[in-house]
User: Fold these one by one.
Assistant:
Number 1:
Amino acid sequence: MSRKLIYTGKAKDIYISSEDEDMIVSVYKDQATMLNGARKETVAGKGALNNQISSLIFEKLNAAGIQTHFIKQLSKNEQLNKKVTIIPLEVVLRNVAAGSFSKRFGIEEGIELERPILEFYYKNDDLDDPFINDEHVLFLDIADTDEIAYLKKETRRINNLLKKWFEQIGLTLIDFKLEFGKDADGRIILADEFSPDNCRLWDAQGHHMDKDVFRRDLGSLTDVYETVLERLQKLT
Ligand code: UDP
């Protein structure tokens, strides 16, 4: 049976599952983009690596009691997810100053933030995903007060788990971006992906083990993602 394409993104294509209308198949693509798609390149093998990394992390999050959209990995490039309506927010959590945070506040990359800092960005390509605060979220009717509180609490809970897992494999979780969605029952669950495309990971020597390798032309992106996957596979 042919399945129906419902969304084509920068890193993934999304289809409605031919078996169940409440499920989607996410197909991870061999594409790397930056600057909202202004720079776009094919990177052979990246889709399979990110699918495996994200599947592994989401499986561990599910096991730790986090509600997520992840059901199972279907193949090298495909995973089965619960269908959700994505909340148009990029929830960014920072443990260490880097990237746009360092630029905005003139703070050197690598400075540890005593209390991890949570930021919201409005997911809107036409507006270049602007930085927004809780009051903007309310004004734009993206989430209500209770939902904002839940998103923040859940993101910090996820950070505590991820930080610990990456620490166990010699990587520091610098920052990351999450997306949440509402399932058929209106429950907020973690959606999208977790991969080196949307987080920063530094090894003990300070090497970038994430998409900054592509953004800053630091070498082979797939070599680095392969190392992250191999290390994650050693986690118990
Ligand atoms: N991030 C993302 N998608 C975006 C913007 C940021 O996944 O559209 C991730 C990024 O990989 C990093 C974190 O969110 O792990 C914080 O990114 P930052 O705001 O520093 O922006 P950048 O410097 O990557 O443009």
Note: The CA atoms of residues 54 and 157 lie 18 Å apart.
Number 2:
Amino acid sequence: MKEYQFKEGFLWGGACSAVQCEGRSPEDGKQDNIWDQWYREDPGAFYQGVGPEVTSDFYHNYEQLIKMMRECGITSFRTSLQWARIISDRDGTVNRKGIGFYHRVIDALLDNGIEPILCLNHFDMPMYWMEKGGFECRETVDAFAAFARVCYGEFSGKVRRWVTFNEPVITPEQGYLYLHHYPLVQDGRRAAQVAYYIQLASSMAVEAYRQMGCSGQIGIVLNLTPTYCRNPEDERDRKAAYAADLFFNRSFLDPSVKGEYPADLVRILEENQAVPVHMEQELETIRRNTVDYLGVNYYHPRRVVHRSRPLESGTFMPDRYFEYYTPENCRMNKSRGWEIYEKGLYDIGVNIRDHYGNIPWMVTENGMGVQDEEQFLNEEGMVEDGYRVEFIKDHLRWLHKAIEEGCNCFGYHMWCPFDSWSWSNAYKNRYGFIRIDINDHARPSFKRSAAWFRRVSDGNRFTD
Ligand code: IFM
């Protein structure tokens, strides 16, 4: 039997986002965000027509869920602050009731011995800014920095770890290229502008944190997806992987950690007349305001090969430079259609160690979404999710090896401690240690994996 021991103080916990757990709950004056709007326009776009109305009902049920999370061994929890719950309009009017809700959540977390980690943006653009163009509009960037200041002013006395954006690449990628998120646009140039303004907004939020003299740490959460090419002997395949890495990993990793965009990414954007509108002073803000730490969301690798024929597309798409392929015999999480490749986590750690100054980082999301979990209910009504325990162990082994080899990882968070709503997939895939019955939100229940995670967290170790 092998024992995997983690260092004292290693963070064991979980993450969710405001929209995915709170429910719309507009009774405190929350304004609509893009998810509320999209659901109103097209409920059929959401799995089984389930929209953001109720989600896990955390807004009403947070005390119970927080207590249950602690019982699962969760000692730190990341959620996000909904911009549209805290700020009511484009004039920046602060909604005291929204602020009050987040104070109550933070206090409940602290009372239960859970460290809160707050994220300022998790895909939840308020409609009052979307109407102006969202992150295509420079004014939105200033408004985001102002929102960040309000949040630090209110909560930084209680919260020591902050995150500017969760998975910032998702907005340009899914909202402006691949038609999976609102506003469902396909335009490479607009995507590049949105990506640049989100990076600027993140850097300005870091700047504000330091200007206000907050004494904790501020980071960014990136969904780093290690990119592997089919044939490393083939230069065309290596180039394909290099380009995909530039678009989907380094577009935020380099400016956030090094303060600079990769020269080759800039060259590709120039070749495609897709360089965003920018000012020298903004680039200076990005240069000067790099993050204190990095959050890494890891689910699956990216497998690419060189293009066999040119992409036929009216607009500039990153896919001009590569094609996807699925290796034979790879293991898949069939519910999600995502490859399971645990070593990717180790490769990420080594890359951060060797190319990004070994900046402190933590796994901010990892997890296994499983469809139709009802089939695993035992006679007592508990989900027997041994597959989840195996999934986590397989990833932790590689993480442990990375740490033994000098990688500076300080924590591991699961997505998500309780079942949560997932964008257009709604409640299709379940991730939690705690099951949410969407017909009876008041009766969440533990899955088998909950007790296992509690033992890992209590002992700071697990055994094979
Ligand atoms: O639900 C999402 C989350 O919002 C961001 N990371 C991946 C999760 C699972 O798909």
Note: The radius of gyration is 21 Å.
